[in-house]
């Protein structure tokens, strides 16, 4: 496994707390091992950590990169061409109506310069379980009743932790993403975690934050209620119970 500058990357077990995210190596790798049960996943996101497996036969890898790619909803930039697409309205955006289809599509859609997928069967099962519990959500683009694009991620406090997106027709994932960010803005979310640098997301206004700044931001956002349950959009609100005062400190996996 990769080495950090100060200490070896640690093995993660069911009996351990996550290592301090500041101990991650130069690539952001913090720990390896452990299963993806809901409590562990939520504990990871609450501490600025996310899973990123190397493949089906690899142990789970846990990352906390420095810097971190983040989009503040008020900084959302929509290009002139995308504004035209949004005005034409050929795509219908829905939330949380086809979560399993979205994550499966993210796992299978071909990507340039990427031979395979990092979304393993274990991850699909784990995030579908988080969705059933009301913490994982999808934003979906539809045309004539057919799913053509979308994205999924995890919500805790006033933060959305984006995971992956896909598109089977031009601008489909972009329209779903813009609709989601605009909704998060209406709900007073603090930020969208985009994890690592992407020129695509930079065009939307995402920027790089130092990990320390990101960790401080998580502590603040977890003081806000979590919109748990099926998301329906800003006009009709959100079903489910609100969980208050989630803390990034003292979380056990």
Overview of the molecule:
- This protein is α+β, with helices and mostly antiparallel strands and 253 residues long.
- It has 2 domains: 10-66, 2-Layer Sandwich (Alpha-Beta Plaits); 69-243, 3-Layer(aba) Sandwich (Aminopeptidase), CATH 3.40.630.70.
- 28% of the residues lie in helices and 23% in strands.
- The protein has 7 helices and 13 strands.
- The protein has helices at 38-46, 80-88, 99-108, 121-132, 172-186, 199-202, 211-221, and strands spanning 10-11, 29-32, 50-51, 61-63, 68-71, 92-95, 136-143, 146-156, 159-167, 191-195, 207-209, 226-227, 242-243.
- The strands form 3 sheets. It has a 7-stranded mixed sheet with strand order 6-7-8-9-10-5-11, with helices on both faces.
- Strand 7 (136-143) and strand 8 (146-156) form a beta hairpin.
- Helix 3 (99-108) runs antiparallel to helix 4.
- It is globular.
């Amino acid at each position: 496994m990769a080495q950090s500058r100060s200490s070896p990357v640690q093995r993660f077990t069911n009996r351990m707390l996550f290592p301090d995210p500041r101990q991650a190596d130069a690539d952001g790798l913090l720990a390896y091992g452990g299963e993806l049960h809901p409590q562990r996943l939520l504990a990871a996101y609450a501490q600025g950590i996310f899973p990123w497996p190397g493949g089906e036969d690899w142990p789970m890898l846990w990352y906390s990169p420095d810097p971190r790619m983040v989009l503040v909803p008020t900084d959302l930039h929509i290009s002139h061409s995308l504004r035209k697409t949004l005005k034409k309205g050929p795509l219908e955006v829905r939330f949380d109506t086809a979560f399993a289809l979205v994550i499966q599509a993210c796992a299978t859609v071909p990507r340039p310069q990427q031979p395979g997928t990092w979304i393993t069967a274990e991850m699909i099962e784990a995030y579908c379980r988080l969705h059933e519990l009301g913490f994982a959500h999808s934003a979906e683009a539809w045309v004539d009743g057919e799913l053509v694009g979308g994205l999924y991620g995890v919500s805790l406090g006033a933060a959305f932790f984006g995971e992956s997106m896909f598109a089977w027709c031009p601008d489909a994932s972009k329209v779903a993403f813009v609709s989601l960010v605009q909704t998060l803005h209406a709900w007073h979310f603090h930020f969208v975690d985009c994890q690592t640098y992407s020129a695509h997301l930079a065009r939307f206004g995402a920027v790089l934050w130092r990990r320390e700044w990101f960790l401080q931001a998580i502590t603040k956002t977890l003081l806000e209620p979590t919109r748990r349950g099926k998301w329906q959009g800003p006009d009709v609100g959100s079903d489910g119970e609100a969980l208050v005062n989630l803390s990034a400190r003292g979380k056990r996996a």
